Amino acid sequence: MNTATGTGSGKSTTAWRNWAGNVTARPAREVTPASVDELSAALRAAREDGLRVKAVGTGHSFTATAATDGLLIRPELLTGIRKIDREAGTVTVEAGTPLKRLNAALAREGLSLTNMGDIMEQTVSGAISTGTHGTGRESASISAQVKALELVTADGRVLTCSEKENPEVFAAARTGLGALGVISAITFAVEPVFFLTAREEPMTFDKVTEEFDALYAENEHFEFYWFPHTGNCTTKRNNRSLGPAAPPGRVSAFVEDEILSNGLFQVVNTIGRAVPATIPGIAKISSKALSARTYTDIPYKVFTSPRRVRFMEMEYAVPRAALVETLRELKTMVERSNLRISFPVEVRTAPADDITLSTASGRESAYIAVHMYRGTPYQAYFTAAERIFTAHEGRPHWGKIHTRDAAYFAQAYPRFGEFTALRDRLDPERLFGNDYLRRVLGD
Question: Residue 10 forms beta bridges with which residues?
Answer without folding.
Answer: 30
